[in-house]
Automatic annotation (TrEMBL):
GO molecular function, one term: sequence-specific DNA binding
Domain HTH araC/xylS-type residues, every copy: 187-285
InterPro entries: Cupin_2, Homeodomain-like_sf, HTH_AraC, HTH_AraC-typ_CS, RmlC-like_jellyroll, RmlC_Cupin_sf, Tscrpt_reg_AraC-type_HTH
Protein name (record): Two-component response regulator
Length: 297
């Protein structure tokens, strides 16, 4: 195994494969860790509570649903203030040139422009918001690791690949979000939508989250984005549904629930109206494209 930065150019020039070195769940109470560094890349995911991650020149406050990706050999420490707690899931990984029949980081980056861009943008750490997708991948990854069976290595490797792609996607979404929306209340409203689109939410719920009257929020949202709040919510749900249809085998009736629509028939009607084809047609067409691409390659 090789200890290297996540942003080392060798990762996209040669064949390296992510490999888990260490992982654990832990609940911390009133705790301050010593300043330390290690050669592995680390993900610290806040399941509940809150904490701070201290670096040499900065402290980052983190809360439930946030995670931080810390590059190798970066000094840091965990701080949980007095009378507070933080439950975390930690994963540390490095890179190996021994394959377990999974794509290399280079292969993944070649096929995914967001990952390629992410790996070329070096930084000591990166804090991102999760809408549960990264947490689900991490939990699935740990379930496979806990089995401690050789045949599970393939699943572990595939989950790691999925994790890298999802983190790069969230990073890209965060950059677009910061550059696109300038009004603070619009940003807060979109942030709420991105983290609650799987629930049955109304304009009033979104307005309450940013402490504004619904009609006023509706007006400024449309003024700054060009569309209504509910149209934005629908667009975001359709985008998430398309992603699930392309990347998973989750039944279409269940995808409706994943994106906050209780009726499968209503979901299918709205999907076809916005995309031009039914969810089933969309899934079949994207599978055909992937199969055609794999035959060509």
């Amino acid at each position: 195994m090789t200890y290297m930065s996540l942003y080392n150019s060798a990762l996209i020039q040669s064949d390296f494969y992510p490999t888990i070195v260490f992982y654990y769940y832990k609940q911390w109470h009133s705790y301050e860790m010593d300043n330390h560094s290690h050669p592995q890349v680390e993900i610290m995911y806040v399941i509940s509570g809150e904490c701070e991650i201290g670096f040499e020149q900065k402290r980052i406050r983190m809360k439930k649903g946030q995670f931080i990706l810390i590059d190798s050999n970066v000094k840091h420490r965990l701080i949980v203030r007095n009378d507070q707690y933080c439950r975390m899931l930690n994963v540390e990984f490095m890179f190996s040139q021994n394959s377990v029949s999974i794509p290399s980081v280079s292969d993944l980056a070649t096929d995914d422009e967001h990952l390629m861009s992410f790996l070329k943008c070096a930084r000591d750490f990166n804090v991102l918001e999760d809408s549960s997708e990264v947490y689900l991948i991490l939990k699935s990854l740990i379930l496979e690791l806990d089995k401690k069976e050789k045949q599970n290595q393939l699943m572990v490797g595939l989950y790691l690949c999925q994790l890298l792609i999802k983190i790069a996607q969230l990073d890209q979404e965060a950059k677009q979000f910061q550059s696109k929306w300038n009004h603070p209340y619009v940003k807060k409203a979109i942030h709420y939508i991105h983290h609650h689109y799987d629930c049955s939410i109304k304009v009033k719920d979104i307005a309450d989250s940013v402490h504004l009257h619904p009609s006023y929020l509706h007006r400024i949202f449309k003024e700054y984005t060009g569309i209504s709040i509910m149209d934005y919510l629908l667009s975001h749900r359709i985008d998430k549904a398309k992603d699930l249809l392309k990347r998973t085998d989750i039944p279409i009736t269940e995808i409706a629930d994943y994106v906050g629509m209780s009726s499968g028939q209503y979901f299918s009607t709205l999907f076809k109206k916005n995309v031009g084809v039914s969810p089933l047609q969309f899934r079949n067409e994207t599978k055909q494209v992937r199969n055609h691409s794999s035959i060509i390659s």
